Model the fold of this input.
Amino acid sequence: DQQVKQNSPSLSVQEGRISILNCDYTNSMFDYFLWYKKYPAEGPTFLISISSIKDKNEDGRFTVFLNKSAKHLSLHIVPSQPGDSAVYFCAATGTGTGSARQLTFGSGTQLTVLP
Amino acid sequence: DAEITQSPRHKITETGRQVTLACHQTWNHNNMFWYRQDLGHGLRLIHYSYGVQDTNKGEVSDGYSVSRSNTEDLPLTLESAASSQTSVYFCASSEQGAYNEQFFGPGTRLTVL
Done:
């Protein structure tokens, strides 16, 4: 029973256009959400996060939107660049997951930005 | 610069052998985690530790063990390797407290024949 779902295994976008990566969750106790980016042969690196008290968080070209009623979040990358080509993992955490704030990850979306 | 390292980066072993994967961090983080990454599953938590002498089971802990004798290291042991444990393993660490991002190591690719 996957509590965090990324239903699109892959996404291709033209350079300069917008990339939208989606993530759904089922656990109502989740109150903090993160996006990680992973290049081949490297570990995931933190990209951006959002608390459940907000519905939007922006950092440069990256914006994360949270729709709590739909239990849905999305990552927007504008404009997309070839260097953004990577696997993007959505992760969630919340009360009851321990003091270390354990993360529950989605299965990832491979983004390919075409030049 | 502080970092988190894993060794070996690649390992091939045989079914039934004991294998230990090393994880070392110089962030001085209290929290350390082990994940495995498999296609279609993302990253799944194996074990985690909040500090020295503390260890806890994660979602997929069967067949794995960890020990925490100091702040810097959290070795992961496969007691008797199985083909189902062929995977890429990631170690991570974070500061104590809520909302602290986890920093990941580069991963170890383990193949069990």
User: Anything to note?
Assistant: The CA atoms of residues 37 and 50 of chain B lie 22 Å apart. The two ends of chain B are 37 Å apart (CA to CA). Chain B has a mean pLDDT of 94.
